[in-house]
From TrEMBL:
SUPFAM superfamilies: beta-lactamase/transpeptidase-like. Residues 14-304 form the Beta-lactamase-related domain. Coiled coil: none annotated. The lineage of its organism: Bacteria, Pseudomonadati, Bacteroidota, Chitinophagia, Chitinophagales. The keyword Membrane applies. It is found in: Membrane. Keywords: Membrane. The keyword Membrane applies. Its main location: membrane. This is Penicillin-binding protein.
């Protein structure tokens, strides 16, 4: 399946498949830098793109479990000047805030066409310019990177640490994730490009230093440590994890849904697949947790390849009864 979906179609990245925490298959293919031809190795970190949201969401859930915040706190608790009312932490987590996406409204302003923005720049822009809402709060699901960039700022407010420091101190270091970090503006001089399918590199762009919605870098083996920590409740309790993986977007009947930092697929037989894909520039990722089988599929790439999003189909090797449903899914 790996060969047919990725191996024969220009895959440039890493893949790991595990069952009960044990590696069944892994491979590292291609180059971390297409110009210098440095090979991808088990320690090569990849930009996780939106798969980063799993870390942001779980960081918030940990602070919630520690009673350092409430999921129904309004954003004015953390940002008194925030110009939109009726939005809560829970709405950010579940993409039900109705906020507009900063990756569109900031670059449309001439001031932010050619300089690097931070999370605080984004917040201040919203306070000063008040871009129009996408919809009223809690009216429906609208996937929006602004939500998770704001959640990263909430982590900073509550924890008294920068977001990169908090994740390093609370998740990465305790779990032994030695090749995982959050990229921020201070790292911009060491930026390594990702690539389009035709090998063209992506240069650093104005929105590339905002974190929380993206900008966690990791390896397949480190992501397996993250997966095992979730199974063993090392970050949050089972009850808190269960709360994070309950569907929050039920306006339209569908097997696809979103929890609090996790995409969900609820099969007709009630089996739940917990996952998050990602895309940013040439980076695209697949992190799929087949909870009923205690199995995990991790695919990370730095050269855009739509076949990565089909990685979930590898899960059919664990339980043939799920084959029909999984093979019908899309990103």
């Amino acid at each position: 399946m790996y060969d047919s979906m990725l191996g024969k179609h220009g895959f440039n990245g890493s893949i790991l498949v595990a069952k009960n925490g044990q590696v069944l298959f892994e491979d590292y293919h291609g180059y971390s830098n297409l110009h210098t031809k440095d090979s991808i190795t088990p320690t090569t970190p990849f930009h996780l793109a939106s798969t980063s949201k799993t870390f942001t969401g779980m960081a918030i859930m940990k602070l919630y479990e520690e009673k350092k915040l409430n999921l129904d706190d309004s954003l004015q608790v953390f940002f008194p000047q925030f110009p939109y009312s009726g939005i809560t932490v829970r709405m950010l987590l579940s993409h039900r805030s109705g906020l507009p996406n900063y990756v569109y409204f900031m670059p449309a302003d001439p001031e932010w066409k050619h300089k690097l923005a931070t999370n605080n720049d984004m917040l201040q822009f919203m306070i000063d310019k008040k871009p129009a809402l996408y919809s009223y709060p809690n009216r429906g699901f609208h996937y929006c990177n602004t939500n998770y960039a704001l959640l990263a700022l909430i982590v900073e407010k509550v924890a008294g640490q920068t977001f990169p420091e908090y994740l390093s101190n609370t998740i990465f270091s305790p779990l032994g994730m030695k090749n995982t970090f959050v990229f921020s503006i201070k790292d911009s001089a060491n930026y390594h490009p990702s690539y389009q399918y035709n090998n063209r590199p992506f240069n650093l762009e104005p929105m590339d230093c905002v974190y929380g919605d993206k900008n966690v870098y990791s390896t397949a083996r480190d992501m397996l440590l993250w997966d095992k920590a979730i199974y063993s409740n090392r970050i949050v309790s089972q009850a808190t994890y269960e709360e994070a993986t309950q569907p929050n977007s039920n306006e339209r009947p569908s097997m696809h849904n979103y929890g609090l930092g996790w995409r969900l697929m609820i099969m007709p037989n009630a089996t739940k697949i917990v996952y998050h894909n990602g895309w940013w520039h040439g980076n695209n990722t697949c992190f799929t947790r087949l909870v009923a089988d205690t199995a995990t599929i991790i695919i990370l790439g730095n050269k855009f390849n739509k076949g990565i999003y089909a990685g979930m189909k590898i899960g059919t090797i664990f339980n043939n009864s799920k084959k029909t449903e999984v093979e019908k899914t899309e990103e």
